Amino acid sequence: MDVDVFWEDVEKRVKKVIDGVEETLKVVLENKKLTVEEAQEILDSLAPSFSLLARKGVLQILYTLLLLGPCTFTELLESSKVNRRTLSFRLKQLQREAMITRYIETVDREKQGKTLYVLTERGRSAALLAIPLIYYISKMHRSSGLHNSL
Fold it and tell me: Would you put residue 114 in left (φ > 0), alpha (ψ -120 to 50) or beta?
């Protein structure tokens, strides 16, 4: 796969998503101007999600599962680049938030199966919706050289 072609395609599609979100917001807010209190209430309701997604390793876990499908703990450990303890803790948090599920894949009755983690619909949606934000932030960093100073 040509990485440049991949990112060009991503950029075109992300632009369509952003345009769609902007149009939806415009329609929703067209009939009613929010008060400061209403805006604060909306932001307060989003705070737990912001907090979870900002934690170390969370997006890496979600995107690994989005790109690869069901993964073992070891596969997630290798892709997320967090330590075992942090990964274990994040997986438990994501399970509590119903973003991933854990199940045991059994080969047959005599052999113990392997434990796999998979995105739930909620986790899949969160990962997909975060793509435009992550893409544009990383694009800004790449084009401005900010990634070198972080």
Answer: beta
- C-alpha to C-alpha distance for 115 and 89, rounded to whole angstroms: 16
Beta pairing partners, 105: 114
Per-residue tokens: 12: 């075109």
- Lookup: tokens for 107: 């080969």
Q: Which amino acid is at 110?
A: E
For the question of whether the overall pTM of this predicted structure is more than 0.85, the answer is no
Strands (E), the chain: 100-105, 114-119
Q: 123-126: which pairs have CB atoms within 8 A and are 24 or more residues apart? A: 123/62, 123/65, 123/94, 123/98, 123/99, 124/66, 126/49, 126/53, 126/62, 126/99
Locate 53 and state its tokens: 């997604």
Could you tell me if 66 and 122 are in contact, meaning their C-beta atoms sit under 8 angstroms apart?
no
Query: In whole angstroms, what separates CA 127 from the centre of its chain?
Result: 3
Tokens 């952003």 sit on residue: 18
First to last CA, the chain: 29
Q: How far is it, in rounded angstroms, from Cα 133 to Cα 145?
A: 18
pLDDT digits (tens, 9 = 90+) for 8-34: 887 888 888 888 889 988 988 888 888
